[in-house]
Predict the structure.
Amino acid sequence: ATGSVCVLRMSCGVAQAVQNDSCTCNLLLLLLLQVSIVIEQLLRLLHHCGMPLTDVDLIHGDGRVVNELLLRAKPRSTLFTGSQRVAEKLALDLQGKVFLEDAGYDWKVLGPDVAELDYVAWQADQDAYACSGQKCSAQSLLLMHRNWRKAGLLEQLKARASTRQLSDLTIGPVLTWTTKAMLDHMNKLLQLPGAQLLWGGQPLQGHSIPDCYGAIQPTAVFVPLEAMREPEALQLVTTEVFGPFQVITEFDDGQLQSVLDVLEGMSHHLTAAVVSNDLPFLQKVLANTVNGTTYAGIRARTTGAPQNHWFGPAGDPRGAGIGTPEAIRLVWSCHREIIHDFGPCTATSELKQS
């Protein structure tokens, strides 16, 4: 039987493959078909650098083929990075023997203390649109205190988004959502009460990107906080679009509990950011949220891991981790004990029954 299986997006494939190798597991590795050739080249580089050829088996294939392989191989453990739907299917198929890093719908809260406006705008633009939003830690929901709107944050974000272009790859093709699918989702959001398109919302022009991929301008839709309180609306708002797309809302001093209610209502809790140097505000938000990796402070971001710390979801015992010795032990190893007892043995005449 295969020791462990790794089913990943490219963004996590490098880290997890190398971390698995450090635990000497027998690894079978599958990545999304569109980027599978990239991980193959990485493995060839690792072989060149001395990694034994037998450490990692790489398979190219679609989900149905690999699902059947998993059912037949009965791996001791499987790490899956990807959609919530597939993650839940694997959990049932493999009788719970899975670690999951799924559905990264990530939020950022901007507190009442406006500071470093230019830097915060730059970081928010990076979090939402770098790599065309194709990061499981991308900023999908921006909840700003009204003071940030008054300070001109939206104008700065719109200006930065407008400079992204295909010619320098600051915007590019989306691998897992078509243009139509992203724009259809946008139009559904715009039907919510008070919703409006802030910028973007149009297909990219002047390119040869195939229709099976996505190509849209960096896009943001404003949805009032009150509209998110309905369960159906919250489910729509928190649908992860793996592309250059975000939802923005605002709140005032009396609406912080409503913000926390929205955050608690999400089903998956990967990364988050609380942009504030207001200590009581930070304490309130951090104490009432459960994300696995949360950045706090005026420089807070949603992206950046796994550079030097834990990266992974919280609130689910199946949650996986990347980036630290603790994460490696959790995902690629397990606790076991061997008790040595060699003697000498006590004479049986001295032993009593109980």
Notes: The radius of gyration is 23 Å. Residues 10-22 form the longest helix (13 residues).
